[in-house]
Predict the structure.
Amino acid sequence: MQISKNVNNIEWIIEEVQRIVPRDRVLTGEPLSGYTSFRIGGPARALVIVHNEKELSRVLRLLRDSQTRHFLIGNGSNLLIKDGGYNGIIIKLGGEFEELSCEGELIEAGAACLLSRVSSAAAENSLAGMEFASGIPGTLGGAVFMNAGAYGGEMKDIVESVRVMSPDGFSTIDVSGDDMEFSYRHSILEENGYIVLKARLRLRTGDREEIRERIRELTCKRNEKQPVNFPSAGSTFKRPVGGFAAALIDEAGLKGTSVGGAEVSVKHSGFVINKGGATASDVIELMELVSDKVFERSGIRLEPEVRIIGEDETWQR
Ligand SMILES: Cc1cc2nc3c(=O)[nH]c(=O)nc-3n(C[C@H](O)[C@H](O)[C@H](O)COP(=O)(O)OP(=O)(O)OC[C@H]3O[C@@H](n4cnc5c(N)ncnc54)[C@H](O)[C@@H]3O)c2cc1C
């Protein structure tokens, strides 16, 4: 490949990607608002949907050799993509990464499987331990990446091992759950940039009806407490040491505060919602306002849980 000659030409890189992945899975100028739970985000230079390890490895090698900016998304439920879109390649997993199988008390599932689907499969097979994840709207890959958790459970409790690919696409290894360095909303992947291909989850045999009942119970709790009818990215801020973000936001009198179409949810102050037509700039301005006011009142600086990526200014000419 004559990469050195064309290193700055993204159009050429996209053509090369189309030699690896069929054209109908390389979407140029694709608006990313359709790929995030916030329903916000400008266009990507290209969004590439890879269906197997070989495609992923070849795409990553090309992008690394050509030093092309790229970012992998899951279900976009913890992302805020800026209004200028993404001046590079967005990678999304599909195809073989959506496979799921169950053997004894183990479930093996591809990184692109939605947690709701994995939880349902666990319940179907009378396997307990994954109920906590049923209402988290992310993929298995995204959940492992950030050790997603709810209602007393976390991915670290159930991950037996994870198959990952190095960011340069050259190697694939299995990492045990113990070596993933899981902690609150964190795994080692945040540091090393490895990509989750699939994961093996160790669950325990239980009673199918009891498992389903627990899922129903948690779904009701979520629907009661969270603004599930509005687009959002879940909890906007991480839980600070010694407190809860929502309580601090309430105490600062910020419930219902809005900037443009973005609002601190009246139902749950820990969520910034898109009430309609919110831009990423609205959300960022509101997040900064909330963070500053909470700091003034409590001395605690809230850190974003939502990952912000992309450009302020559009790359489109
Ligand atoms: C209504 C609502 C409720 C929520 N409730 C919860 C909750 O209770 N608990 C909780 O923890 N979260 C919750 N979230 C946040 C979100 O669903 C989780 O953070 C989820 O794990 C994100 O997964 P995703 O696939 O959407 O990842 P994305 O948002 O697409 O990406 C997030 C990060 O993961 C990385 N990533 C994605 N896939 C992979 C992969 N295969 N390999 C390596 N890295 C990858 C991305 O590069 C990115 O850095 C909620 C969100 C919403 C909208």
